[in-house]
Amino acid sequence: MAGSGGLGGGAGDGQGAGAGQGAALRAPRASLALVALVLGVYCLCALPGRCPPAARAPAPAPAPTEPPRPVRLPRAPSLPVASGPGRRRFPQALIVGVKKGGTRALLEFLRLHPDIRALGSEPHFFDRCYERGLGWYRSLMPRTLDGQITMEKTPSYFVTREVPRRIHSMSPDTKLIVVVRNPVTRAISDYAQTLSKTPGLPSFRALAFRHGLGPVDTAWSAVRIGLYAQHLGNWLHYFPLSRFLFVSGERLVSDPAGEVGRVQDFLGLKRVVTDKHFYFNTTKGFPCLKKAPESSRPRCLGKSKGRPHPRVPKAVVQRLQDFYRPFNLKFYQMTGQDFGWD
């Protein structure tokens, strides 16, 4: 035990002596290490941007960067790119409205004219795809020769607030065609189209009025589109009335050659499309195009055109007629045309 204690004590004494000597030896080493560290940091700071010799060799040429991928934007229509002789131009004339007014029929009738080249699909450039730029828009257009007119139609243009300014920025000389129809009949036709795609939709009456037969619900697009005077007022901030032609949807059915003749006059074209091109299809209740020489059958619009309307109570129709009457009268005054809806 005493020996253990002695050994323990001796060990303690030895550690004390060694610690003193070790501290004396470590002090200069620590000082040298500290000096070396300070010098190293100084060198790094004093020579900014300098590279080690190996880095001075010519660096390999950078790999070619990939071109930026185009940004995919929503709701961009899939449209064929036109090819052939001529060149693509911005449209000189646009059918800007209105939905369920007869815009598709008018476009198809006009495409018979050899001096009209029209985009078949609706590009929705000025209301939905404007971010894609005018270059993209022009690339969609059919190629035209000198003297030919480029056209497109998108019925929602007429009711979209930003569109007149955007079209004016493209060209203040653009000719604008608006096909209008009795707003009550147009609203019912609009509802019929939606109902065909969405079975189980509430009744026309439930959507057109608040609280039964309460106030007309102008928030419903089928009703709001028919406020033609309000929409036209927005356009007249940018275009004079002389840039517009208003086509009657009713006369486009009863006298298609007459209305198409007015459009050809407005566009400064010879009246090539005449009554010899049309016949009345009693099944569809709509005019169709007679068989062209190179075609095997007459041309009628698709099944979605001329579909039967749902039955709407007379009281509902009368209430809507009363609602639209002051708007219609103002529209007649603005355009100088009485469309006979009242």
UniProtKB/TrEMBL annotation:
Pfam families: Sulfotransfer_1 (PF00685). Disulfide bonds join C288-C300. Its EC number is 2.8.2.-. One of its GO terms (cellular component) is Golgi membrane. Residues 59-71 have a biased composition (Pro residues). Its main location: Golgi. 3'-phosphoadenylyl sulfate binds at K100, G101, G102, T103, R104, R181, S189, K305, G306, R307, P308, H309. SUPFAM superfamilies: P-loop containing nucleoside triphosphate hydrolases. Residues 1-21, 55-85 are annotated as: Disordered. Keywords: Disulfide bond, Glycoprotein, Golgi apparatus, Membrane, Signal-anchor, Transferase, Transmembrane, Transmembrane helix. The active site is at K100 (for sulfotransferase activity). The keyword Glycoprotein applies. GO terms for molecular function: [heparan sulfate]-glucosamine 3-sulfotransferase activity. Residues 91-325 form the Sulfotransferase domain. It is a single-pass type II membrane protein. Transmembrane segments: none annotated. It is found in: Golgi apparatus membrane. It comes from the Eukaryota. It is an enzyme of class 2 (transferase). Belongs to the sulfotransferase 1 family. This is Sulfotransferase. The lineage of its organism: Eukaryota, Metazoa, Chordata, Craniata, Vertebrata. The gene is Hs3st6.
